[in-house]
# Entry
Amino acid sequence: MEEVTKDNERLDFGKMGYGCKHYRRRCMIRAPCCNEIYDCRHCHNEAASMSKRVYDRHELNRFDVEQVICSVCDTEQPVHRTCTNCGVKMGEYLCEICKFYDDDIDKGLFHCDDCGICRVGGRENFFHCNKCGSCYSIGLLDNHSCVENSMHNHCPICYEYLFDSMKDTAVMKCGHTMHRECYIEMIKRDKFCCPLCTKSIMDMSAAWKMIDEEIEANMMPDEYRRKKIWILCNDCNDTTEVYFHILGHKCRHCRSYNTRSIAPPVLPQE
# Structure
């Protein structure tokens, strides 16, 4: 019993005491692309992106990692759960596919075979959408607009690649995605349209009602009162002719004010 206890103490030695700002782990990795040692692939990518020589900037492919260095005894060795020299468990969680270690298992780490990478948040809380090409919160199951490979794109605000980003992602009504922090910042700046397709990103009915009331209270001057223009609705893609008003133009089909003026349609000639 005492021997088993000592073995467990050895395995757990240094747990949560090593790592970097990205992960808590008891090993470092040797990047095969440049043969340098880093705490994790994110540390490598951040350092490489700061290189003064543009052609030296590159990113590490997680699947190419073959050698790790124990943070406790500095022994370099092939990817393995425990150190071959000191016997320390180099990570409570190890994905041998992603070559990924982490001591913080409270994050609910799991490997998604369809994504091909590890995710956080607990497998039971996510499902993989094959059309969107990524794992989404279970709350979005049968409750989101699918956009082909929507997560295999860059955030339209900060332009960081979304698929393997460590930041939370927001899925908008239109199905497009961006970082949640970018989404919140966009709302704070009173921007309520998707930067990619210009559709409304939330229920705007309350805002449309306010515009209705403002238009009713502010009539246009006589010379503009009967003026009409053609509009395209960004929300339903319908085109219609409406009365001009400086405060906005309401789609007759979906009642949205998320519209823009367009040239009148060209009628076919006889």
About this structure: The mean pLDDT is 93. The longest helix spans residues 205-217.
